Amino acid sequence: MRFRFSLLVGISLAIALALVYIPSTSADRDDCGTGYEFRPSSGVGCVQINCGTIKDAHYSYTERCICGSAGSEFENPADPNKSCNYPADYASCPGCLFACVHADEDCPDAPGLATNKNTNSTTNSSSNANTNKNVNTAANTNQPTNKNINSSNANATPPITTQGSISPTCADECHKYLRGKKNAEVLSAEGEYPDCSCQIDIRDNGGNVTQTVSVDGSIETTYTFDPSSGVLISKTIFNRKDEIEKIRKRLGYRYTEKEIDELLAPDKVDQWFQGQIKNIKTETGLLHPQFWWQHVVAMLDHGSNGNSADFVDVHEFGRCGDSMMWLERNLTTDLNLGDDADEPGQKHEAMLSITGEKYGNMLNHTSLMVRPPGITNAEWEDIVKELKNLSGGEESNPGMLPGSLSNIDPRLLDAKVLDPYKKQTTTVREFIKGWSYIRIS
After folding, report:
1. Which long-range contacts (CB under 8 A, 24 or more apart) does 382-388 make?
2. Average predicted confidence (pLDDT) for the chain
3. Which runs of consecutive H residues, i.e. helices, occur in 129-265?
4. pTM
5. Which of 14, 53, 269, 340 has the most beta carbons within 10 angstroms of its beta carbon?
6. CA-CA distance, 240 to 331, in Å (whole number)?
7. 3-state secondary structure of 260
8. Per its UniProt entry, which superkingdom is the organism in (predicted)?
9. 252 CB-near residues (< 8 Å, 6+ apart)
C-alpha cells in the first residue's frame, strides 16, 4: 500500500527511530549449519562453503549457491540450470547443492546417501505430487538454507508443474468452447477425454441460434446461421491441434491453452503461493511497529515510488509494489517465462498485475492476477491488449471503472488474485471492491 504524503514519511521516520525497532534480517553466526559459513554482508547470511567447487555452480548476487544461468536476466534454458540438493536433515551439509544438471535430466545420487530421493529443481521438471522434494527457486533468496518439504503438504513450496492435476472430462473440454458467451450452451458432451464429441449452440439475445459448434476430437466445425430465418450462411472446418499450434507460435507463447490451464490449476497455484509467503514477515496493520519499519526501510532503500523484488528477498518483507514484483518474478521464473518479445514465453500469457486506485491515486494497492482457465491463447491475447489499453494511467485516462471488467469478459471477475502483501488469495471480483479505478498491466 502506498501513501503519497510527505507528512506520512516524516511520521514514519519518527516512529521508527523512536521505537528503535530493528528486526534481524540475516542469520546469526551460530545459526549456520555444517557446510555453511556466516557472511554478514550476504543476502542469505549463511553461505554454502564449497559452492565454487561444484561443476556449473556459482554464487548468486546474494551468495546463494545456484546452477548455470538459472534466475539470470539472460537465463539460457540449454544450460544446466536444475539444482540437486541434499535434504534439510542431512547432517554434513543440510540443504546443500551437490550437482547441476539439465532440465530434462534426473539428479544423480547424492554423495553420502544411499539413494537421492530429495532433489531441488529450479526449472519446470516432471515430478510426482506425492514425492518429497526440496524445492528452491534460484531467484528467490529469502532463506538461509533450503527446506526439505513434501509437495503434498499444504505448507509446501511445490514447483508449478503439469503433473498431478485431476484428469479433465469431456464435459470440461466441451465447456471451453462456450468462450465466455452468456448465450452459449453445451447441448451434448460425449466420449472419453481427449477424444470428445461436443455440440454447442450460440444464440442471440432473442434466443435465435446464430452458430452451432460441432467438435469431434480435434476437428471443430462451426455452422453460422441467419438468426431470423435459420438459413445456413457458412460452414467452417479446421483441425484444432494445427490451429492451436499456429496461434501459439504466432503469439510467441510458450504454452498451449491446455498446458497453461494445467500449470495454473487453482490447487497448484494455491499450494505454490502458500509456500512462497510462508517466511514473509510483512505486516499490514497501521498500529504494528513492523508496518512503519518496513515502509521506512523500503523508502531508504529504493525511494518512495520505486519497487524492488530483490528487497523482499533480503528482508522478507516489503511494500505492496515490492511484494507484487517479487511474486511476479518468482512465478515467471518457475514457469520459464520472460519479457523478451523475440523469445517464446511472455509472462503476460500467465499473469498480469492488477492495481486499485482512489483519491487521485494517493491511495493504491497492487497484486498479481492469474490468467483464468478455459480461455484460448487468441482470446487471451485480445483480452490482455484491451485491458492494457483501457488501464491508462494518464490524467485523461486514469483507468477502468471496476464494473467495466465484466464487459470485457465476465470470466475475468473470477480470476484468482494473489496478494503477497496481505498474504492472501482472493478473486478479481473481491479485489476491485472499493476502488475508484482499476489498472492492469
Report:
1. 383/408, 383/409, 383/412, 384/348, 384/352, 387/352, 387/440, 388/440, 388/441
2. 77
3. 170-175, 240-251, 257-263
4. 0.52
5. 269
6. 29
7. helix
8. Bacteria
9. 341, 343, 344, 345, 346
244 with 257: CB under 8 angstroms?
yes
Collapsing DSSP to helix, strand or coil, 153 comes out as: coil
Cα 336 from Cα 124, distance rounded (Å): 7
Residue tagged 527511530 (cell numbers): 17
Q: Helices (DSSP H) in 201-319: which residue ranges?
A: 240-251, 257-263, 266-277, 289-302, 309-315
Please provide residue 397's backbone torsions phi and psi, each rounded to the nearest 5 degrees. Answer: -145, 80
d(CA 271, CA 123): 17
Cβ–Cβ under 8 Å, residues 105 and 79: no
List CB contacts of 280: < 8 A, sequence separation 6 or more: 142, 312, 316, 317, 323, 420, 423
Q: Is the dihedral of CA 177, 180, 185, 190 positive or negative?
A: positive
Cβ atoms within 10 Å of 351's Cβ, excluding its own: 22
State the alpha helices, DSSP H only, in 264-404: 266-277, 289-302, 309-315, 320-334, 377-391
Contact yes or no for 379/431 (Cβ under 8 A):
no
For 126-178, the pLDDT digits (tens) are 333 333 333 333 333 333 333 333 333 333 344 554 333 445 688 877 887 77
How confident is the model at residue 160, as a pLDDT? 57
Burial class (CB in 10 A: 0-12, 13-18, 19+), 39: middle
Query: Residue 106 corresponds to which cell in the numbers above?
Result: 534426473
* Farthest CA pair distance, the chain: 83
Percent of the chain with pLDDT over 90: 24
pLDDT tens digit sequence for 377-423: 888 998 999 898 888 766 667 788 888 888 888 889 999 999 999 99
d(CA 140, CA 310): 8
Cα 102 versus chain centre, distance: 23
Q: Is the dihedral of CA 149, 154, 159, 163 positive or negative?
A: positive
pLDDT at 191 over 90: yes
Query: The C-alpha cell of 409 is what?
Result: 469478459
Q: Can you tell me the mean pLDDT for 340-366? A: 88
Amino acid at 104: D
* DSSP conformation class of 280: -
Spatial separation of the C-alpha atoms in residues 85 and 64, rounded to whole Å: 13
Report H helices in 319-369. 320-334
The whole-number pLDDT of residue 7 equals: 38
H or E stretch covering 188: strand 184-192
